[in-house]
Known about the structure:
By secondary structure, this protein is mainly alpha-helical.
Amino acid sequence: MAFWEFLMSGWVLGLYGALRSQGVGGCLLASAAGWQAACWGLRLTGHEVWGWMHRPDAGPTDWPGRVVGQRWGARSCRWLGLLLQATGALLMAIALVALARTVVNG
């Protein structure tokens, strides 16, 4: 676990340093990019992408092959959406902290 913590802290600190060196404009741009990635992730995890077969009250269907294909597609959309949400939130948080430190310290 120590290696994972070392890797994550190094990556986060490296991204923070890179954003802080870009100044206010770079921090604002990275914050907007993180917000947009999180919004795309929310759109991919929405119910309209899942379809009717993922709702708990859905009944059986006559097309098992088609449903399996749709379930794999919906499942991959959910995983990609969750990954985008986590990445966007992390990027936005780091960018906002770097922006605050850049504005305060100059």
